[in-house]
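Renewal narrative, Specific Aim 1. Our central claim is that a sequence can be written position by position from structural information alone. The example that follows is taken directly from our test logs and has not been curated for this report. It begins with the structure tokens describing the chain, in the order in which they were read.
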């Protein structure tokens, strides 16, 4: 076994490694994925915008047409462009409400008919 201390208790490689470890621990980089949102006025403006090559998605908001666009670079190096539109709620006629109204009307008519019959019975008893 060789003695690298040169008899003085000094090893320059250990000190260099310790210094390198200290520097690396100071500059630990955390990769956080952040999304950017850019307001645009048309789909052409969003499509012409350049995005980074790392695949981080960029969102574009078109307030005029109430649309959101997503542009990112895919794994093959080409740009993906996706359009999100707000779906309108369709008004569907509820047949149960119509049936409920019809049943209500029939019950009201029946009640009125019973009230009229009840009045006739009371008059006949007198």
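The sequence written for that structure reads:
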């Amino acid at each position: 076994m060789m003695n690298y201390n040169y008899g003085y208790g000094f090893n320059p490689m250990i000190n260099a490694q310790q210094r390198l470890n200290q520097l690396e621990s100071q500059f630990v980089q955390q990769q956080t994925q952040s999304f950017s949102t850019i307001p645009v006025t048309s789909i052409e403006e969003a499509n012409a915008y350049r995005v980074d090559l790392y695949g981080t998605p960029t969102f574009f908001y078109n307030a005029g047409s109430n649309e959101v666009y997503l542009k990112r670079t895919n794994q093959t190096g080409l740009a993906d462009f996706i359009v999100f539109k707000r779906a309108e709620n369709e008004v569907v006629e509820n047949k149960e409400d119509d049936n409920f109204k019809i049943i209500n009307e029939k019950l009201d008519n029946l009640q009125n008919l019973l009230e009229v019959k009840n009045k006739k019975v009371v008059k006949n008893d007198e």
